[in-house]
Structures are given as structure tokens and as C-alpha cells.
Amino acid sequence: MKAIVIGAGLGGLLSAAKLSREGYEVEVFERLPIVGGRFTNIPYHGFQLTTGALHMIPHGPAGPLAKLLKEVGADVEIVRSKPSAIIRVPRRRGDTDYKFGHRDLLFEDFKVPFSLINRLKLVFYVITTRKNPPKGISFAQWCTEHIEQDWTHRISDAFFGWALSLRSADVPAEEAFEIIENLYRYGGSGVPIGGCKGITDALVAVIDAHGGVINTSTEATAITTAGGKATGVIVDGTEHNADIIISDIGHVATASLLNSGDTNKELQNYAHMADELKPSAGIKICLSSEKPLIGHGGVMLTPYAKRVNGINEVTNIDPSLAPPGKHLIMSHQCVHWKDLGNLQEEISFGLEDLQDIFAGKEYEVLLIQSYSNEWPVNRAPSGADLKNLTPMPNLFVVGDGAKGKGGIEVEGVALGVKNTMMEILSKA
Predict the structure, then answer these.
(1) β-strands 327-335, 310-312 pairing
(2) Which domains does the chain have, with CATH numbers?
(3) Are 220 and 234 contacting, i.e. CB atoms less than 8 angstroms apart?
(4) Strands across the sheet with 238-241, in order?
(5) pLDDT tens, per residue, the chain with 428 residues
(6) Three-state SS for 49?
């Protein structure tokens, strides 16, 4: 059996590693000259910056990604962050900025700013809602209905802005509670040694060891079909046949590779649904400092910032990601769809936030990266993924446009790959 993988991002590499270990003949086609997509490193003035992700695994060494890496035999060390996250709040109760100083709460103490009555409501509603998650409303709507307090919206926007690059008003409540469930199940964040590239390099090694082939600078321009199935891909004018095709380029791009003139109603409906997806967008600001700005390897959520949702300082766990004597700090802020035309203004707000958050501390701005449109944070917003199946039984989609339920970022990618592999291998 031959499997062709379109795209060598994290989802494509995980799929190729798994199938190659299962005895499939695997060939990967990647249009870029590098592998990893938005999950690898960029060497920059001695720092290991990233093409997208933030050198962090949401559920550390116990989550779906870590488990799948172990399953395929990828040699990766993931160190649990301690603490996994803190929340930076103004020092004086009632303040809405950091001008009078700040204090840090452990993530598990997020309930502290709630009033007593709202703490009791929170316990009651979370317990009851976990058993029967609401459908058809956003997490922000759920909060307004049950625990209306300024802190509710601030902390949920900061968390989902960092974790999903979405505002809580754009996260389905059902998906939000699946994410909360997974936090209880797997725990908090961790840092892979070597950063994102430590993982992608390990997966490439697995694929190579099992006879898989990865072609870079080669773009698939069409998916060929016959009899209701995908039969192969066209690359540089040549058709490559396969029994199974896995796309790691999202549903929109996958649909565009299929025959646009096909009269199959299922394919037409699939293409229409793919076009309706709105990629999530964000801005990452990379900083350098000689002294730690955070002091640990977890996330610092910033619910009182204008735009920045969270910040990490991974060099407290893996110093090799920066030159000797330096720290790498990365902030992330989600960009709402209506603000995509004002990216420069959004960046300015983010830089102002960092000046407030790290007032009195010395740092240098290394690089500012924005992610939107065809190079987004996620090709489909969490909770709106079209999942991994397509109208063709041997054509699958993996990656950040087809995540598993309740999976934060790369954990969702791993869950989607796991679902896809179960579907393929159960029919082998």
C-alpha cells in the first residue's frame, strides 16, 4: 500500500511517521524548501525562533502529542513546565492596568478574583456543564448567562487568545468545555528540548529509518480521482499514484486541488463548507533579554493587557534556544478577523503592552511575526474544523485545519492524526 502526504507540517510528518512504521510506502511532497511548516525553528542571531508555534506543548509530556510521538518512536524529550502557567494581574484590586505594579497568581488560583457568590456559581456550573456541555452558544455567552463579572471575560479571552488565537466569543462553549476536560486529564504545558525543530527532526528521522521519502520544493498542483476515489497527485506535471492520500494543507487548499468542474454534489458541498472557514490570526513578538523577564518555563497569561494574551520564556527550560547569557521571550496576541486590515496598529498595541508588563526591565525586540490568511495560526478556528474525513473514502485531511475535539493547537493536530490513523488502519 502506498500513501502520499501533501505537506510536511506537523500533521503530515506525524502521519508519515506512523504509516511508514506500519509498513506503508510513504512519500511526502512539500512545496517549501524546509520541513515543519509553522512548527520548526528559524536560526536568528544565535536564537532559535519559530516559524509559528511557541516552542511549547500545551499538555507537556502526558498529552496526545507526546503519546503519539512515543508511539511512532520519535526521540523527543518534553519537560513539564513548573508552574504550567501564571496570571499577571494589577497589584491593587479594581485596577484595570499595571501602572501601580502587578502580582502573579498561579493558574489554578484563577478563581481568586471572583466574588464569593461567583466562586460558588463557578464550581456548580462547571461541574454540571462538564456532564452536559451546551451547544449552539459561545463560551462568552455561557459566561454571561451564568457568571457575569469582568474577570470572567478577561481571563477567558486571555486563555483562549493564547491557546487558540480566538476570543471567547468565537469559541463554541462545547469545544471550550472539551478543552477544560483535557486540562484536567493531561495537565499543563511543557517545552520540547530543541524547540519545535527538536520534534520535526525526530519525526523526519523516523520516516527516513522506515524507507519514507520526503520531497521539498515540490508542490502538488492537483489530486487525481476516478470512481469516487482519489488516485494520486500531480507534481511538476507528473502523476504519482497512491492508495491513500493525506493532506496537511487544510480543507480549503485540499478542495482546490480537486476537479473544480466535478458535478458530484458531495464534493461541491465539501468545497463550499471549506470556503466558509475563517482561519484564526495572530501576532507574535520575540524579545531578547540578559535577565529573566518571567523566571520560569510556563505561560504568563495577561488578562489586563490591551492586546497581548500571554507570554512565555522557554529558555528557563532549554537554554540552547538562545545564545549564552540570553533569554528568549515570546508574546502572542490573537487578531480578530475585523482587525486584519490594521495589523500595524495591532502590533503597536502589543508593543505598548510589553512596555507596561515589563516596565523597568531591559529587553530588545528581536522579531515581529504576523499569521493570517494563507499563513495563519490555524487554518480553521477551533470548534469549526471539518474533521479529518472528506467525501472521498481514501482522502484525509490532517493538521491545524482538522484538529481533534478539545485539542489545543498541536495537541489537536495529534488527536486529528490519531483519528485518521485509526480510520485508515482499521480498513487495512
Answers:
(1) antiparallel
(2) 2-41+194-276+383-426 (3.50.50.60), 281-371 (3.90.660.50)
(3) yes
(4) 220-226, 229-235, 238-241
(5) 999 999 999 999 999 999 999 999 999 999 999 999 999 999 999 999 999 999 999 999 999 999 999 999 999 999 999 999 999 999 877 788 887 788 999 999 999 898 899 888 888 887 888 778 888 999 999 999 888 889 999 999 999 999 999 999 999 999 999 999 999 999 999 999 999 999 999 999 999 999 999 999 999 999 999 988 999 999 999 999 999 999 999 999 999 999 756 667 888 888 889 999 999 999 999 999 999 999 999 999 999 999 999 999 999 999 999 999 999 999 999 999 999 999 999 999 999 999 999 999 999 999 999 999 989 999 999 998 889 999 999 999 999 999 999 999 999 999 999 999 999 999 87
(6) strand
Burial 29-48 (b: 16+ CB within 10 A, else e): bbbbeebbbbbbbbeeeebb
Distance CA 417, CA 18 (A): 9
Our measurement of the distance from residue 154's CA atom to the centroid of its chain's CA atoms, rounded to an integer in Å, reads 21
The pTM for the full model equals 0.95
Buried-state track 236-254, b at ≥16 Cβ within 10 A, e below 16? eeeebebbbbbbbbbbbbb
